[in-house]
Amino acid sequence: MTYGSGPATVLAASGWPGALGHPFFQHALLAGTAIAAAAGLIGYFLVLRAQVFTGDALSHVAFTGALAALALGYDPRLGLFAATIAVALLLGGLGRRGKVDDVAIGGIFSWVLGLGVFFLTLYTTSRSAANGGAGVNVLFGSIFGMSSGQARLAALVAVGICAAVVVIARPLLLASVDEKVAAARGVPVRLLGFGFLLLVGACAAEATQAVGSLLLLGLLAAPAGAAQRLTDRPYRALALSAGLAVGEMWAGLGLSYAVPQVPPSFGILAAATAVYAATFVPVPKRRPAPVAA
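Structure for Metal ABC transporter permease, as requested:
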């Protein structure tokens, strides 16, 4: 599917009215907005809990799961969700108190990559003739290729993830900052850790549809990292992370529509990287007004 129709459209405050006239862009905007909000909320807690490596691991799991489903003749989304959620819970079981550690991730990482190579070989030698671009779509996303039904389903799942994060945000924040204090106050730290990892797995599968497994980590980590640099208030940072992710999604989709040669996943991650980099630019401090004599 091409990203625009006719000559490249110039967005003017600007090409959005023209872009919104295309069904494929409407579907991408619907799904992308919800997916970005979920990734921003989940990503904030991943950064806060020092579990960003989990997102990196699940990006490889997403690729392996989708290829396994394709090789076996199933919908790749089934493989995405089944693999990412199952491995996220497995990692939690191998860690402490439902919290993934680097040793657990390292123990599974090579195994997952090996399975990915196996299913890639199986798929390319047996079924790729029927859908040769499916593997590329898993790697780099296919948000402009979503049908109306796929976009609505993706949006509903992402909204469910957002709602779940909001419900557990308060106890999860306490458990993320100080596990011992949270446990002393009766917070089920281990169960909460497993619940969060389940949401991470579901969000990883969702985000893969937008930016692909190869760039998944950027959508989870960059908005959250920028939000943490901009404010030290947890709830404000949580909302800011979601807002930045949505804004970057819109900017990336708009850029890709305006310049059809730019893949949407690249546009989204380019916007996310630019925003994160901008937080390192020193801001001159205001000098206090002189006190009148």
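The two ends are 70 Å apart (CA to CA).
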